[in-house]
What we know:
By secondary structure, the protein is mostly helical.
Amino acid sequence: MTRLKASDSGTLIWDALASGVHLNSEQICLLTGLTRSQFLNGLEWVKDVFQEEQIQPISYEHRTHMYFLAEEWRDVRDYSNWTLRGLVTRQMRLSHTLGAAAAKYPSSGPARRVKRHSEMLVEDLEDMLREVSNSHQKAK
């Protein structure tokens, strides 16, 4: 098996999506010949590097598990809402864990400080979610 660089895998993924179709990961692998691992590495590269270079966001529809190149803000907004909701939930759970740790180890300054930072992060994520969620009203 040939080892592909993430950028090579990512370029294949990008080219598959560039035709404007919505594809799931299995379809992308079939079209490109990528293995699941190559697909995941390439997708990370697309998300981390290439979409900003191309000034073209990639999006994902979590209900259908389809990837596509976003054609309008609504596509990005829906993906962002879904992602931010997940981040808020995970961060709130971490905050609860840190709260329990701060209560159990009250003399631990770091536990209290980290809990406070975690709570601030939840507030920031919730602010982001509100801004993204409300953006559809501003776009009209």
